[in-house]
Predict the structure.
Amino acid sequence: MGYEVKLDIFEGPLDLLLYLIKKNEIDIYDIPIALITEQYLKHIEIMKNLNLDVAGEYLLLASTLIHIKSKMLLPAQEDENQENEDEQDPRSELVKQLLDYQAFKEASIQLEQRPLLERDVFKRGYSVENQCSERGDDETDVELSVFELVEAFYKIISTLGKTEFMEIDVEKMSLTDRINEIMGRLAEGKKLTFAELLGDYSDKKMILYTFLAILELMKLRMIRVYQASSFGVIRVALATEQ
Amino acid sequence: MEETKAIIEAIIFASEFPISIDKIREVLHDVEKNVITRILQDLIKEYQERRGGFLLQEVAGGLQFRTRADLSYWINKLMKGKPAILSHAAMETLAVVAYKQPVVKAEIDRIRGVDVGSSLKGLLEKKLVRIMGRKDVPGKPIMYGTTKKFLEVFNLKDLSELPTLKELKDLQEET
């Protein structure tokens, strides 16, 4: 079973590629294309298996990788045009793109670490009253991406016993029912945590359906999903509330 | 001199936005620019030495009183609100715009390797990014750049305060 594979949060195909390079402790100027291509494709496969929409960009980079791999398999044509001796390494363009992306990624991290207005520093006259939220705690929210949800999903799944046998029952579970139930619970309770929504069930199939329902509702923008900090509690709320 | 200093301090205090030296001079037109600059440096130093709850800071080409960053926990407790934190995707898009401006969307797409349409839209809505004009190439694509609000939010004097891309790349080499 492929459950042990951990999905990190990737901001795109280049981010995924950088992650693989770091994970394998590879020199970015000398990427073993075959190995990286294989791992890259594996990750895409996982994303597909999770029914996540694998954006076209991921597939584009996959084809680029395969293209480079095939180019590198071809013997270098030395004798024909000597002047073109230092023929470009087929990887060089990708490496340049990766280095550029890496620099901007670093830039974004540095930006984020600056003392931000209304997060770290405050100017005068910020109205306290308007900011008072109905919530009693002082947690701050960040909107979540699908990847973080997937991680949370794994966490809940992993708390279940591993030795569960699959039972084939005729009783049909419908996604619509799950969606309706979630919307119903949210409508009365206003806000629920992700664990509250999923955790009540010990049945893997039920959790799976609930999870799919949450993803579907997110896609339809009927609910909003928040998290105060990494690994913090994930909250789910009706989108109309805002 | 002491009086001038007090006036400048009052002007900064009363201003809603970071106030520039030129703006201060509109009020104090008979004071030389370099005198104002010196007074401002004095004031900035005074607040720093005082180690009080707030500092006088140079942001977005002007001056503004801002609370000390290390006290954020307490202010956030008071606000109970959620600071508008940008997603990683939005931060990356913003970084590319900040460094490459004026830049067209296709270039940002290429650098990030994804379609940046939605994060760019969000940044425009938050007024961190603005349209700077159109590039004079076929199709006349829109060029984007950062706003004054971007400098305010990220506590920057001006764009030159950002580390250069080369410095960032060197940093990567080391790690």
In short: Chain A has two domains: 2-112, 137-241. The longest strand of chain A covers residues 223-227. The beta strands of chain A are 142-143, 191-193, 223-227, 234-238.
